[in-house]
Amino acid sequence: MRVNAESYVTAELFTDMMLKIANGECNECAIRPTFLIGVQFPVEDALSGNLSPESRSLLQEKLKDSDLAEEEPFGKAQNAMQRYVGAQAVSDKSVADCVEALIGTYLLSGGITDAVSILEWFKIIPSEDKFLSFLTKKVNTVISEGKATVQEVDWLLNSCRSDIETILGYKFKDPSLLLEALSHASYIRNRYTRSYERLEFLGDAILDFLITAYIYENCGDLSPGDLTDLRSALVNNVTFASYVVRLGLHKYFCSQFNGVLENAIKTFVEHQEQLDHVLLEDVLYLIEEEDCNIAQYIDVPKALSDIFESLTGAMFLDSGGDLKLVWKVIYRIMHKEIHDFSMKVPKQPVRVLMEMIHACPSFGKSRATESAVPKILVPVTFTHAGQRQTVYGAGSNKTQAKRAAAKLALKILAT
Prior knowledge:
By secondary structure, the protein is mostly helical. The protein is built from 16 helices and four strands.
């Protein structure tokens, strides 16, 4: 049995010291550190910290041989091993995270103006587009261009504009933006504005930005993972659809729905009324249209959440890009859930499913669909009523698809 044996930490210390000495010798002789590749020094040299005459002689002989070697090409490696000296492998995600962190740092320190500046410096957005001017630029509407009157817009809104403005606590300067925000593609009576899709796209980005900024500044005691989960619980189609039903805004949606969509909206409204419009954690596990391609599984019609996002986009444009004013309206609607969820961050569906040990869930490999709008499908197999079942979740990326699959599994397990 060996006694007084040192741990590997001690050996590592000696090895590190020997490398420093050897590199120091290379520096003194003005030769490359790669010169040492393949050279082995005796343990005695490592323990003493000094090169023995034999080791120095070995280096001298190797140095003579290296004089015959070709000169190292500029900017290129002379041999296969040398390319790894001084190099560090970094994943694409790490680089992307670093870029995002830099943009966030500029946003925190200098506001939106500085954040846009670094985006232009990274060439993420072209500097010649003068992006900042778009934030406050007045947009042309059918009323400002004289293509429609306020009376015509009010008629298309079924004379409910004042009721909607009272619910939101915001009075529109240009009612045509409100009409566009509430117009479904099926609303053929409206021949003046587009349907709500463009405003919904804008509102989605604004809501994500405002809610993320608020929880970052006011929920500092949460870990990065909890902040991500909190944002996911607040920024999603189920949450936004719940607000629309709670406020009664779905009654003012300008559309000519088909029977399937009408029934889906009616079912969700009744579900929320039974819960007294309280947004519980279980509500977040309801199935959205983007989660699957099977109509009978859908619990939350996307059209409801689209209303919330399009109204946000409409208020942003109508106010001249006033984010403070928009947030004042949004916070009045969402403040209860922001406070409650920050006190107890809702669990993500994947975590809830994995904690159901009796279900023995197992996620499969993802695959892409061959369709006009490609989606990622992720299967999950689980045990229900003594039998193994498999469902597929759909999403624009693997993470969303996995979450959708978990929600589908939870729906079946709840029956």
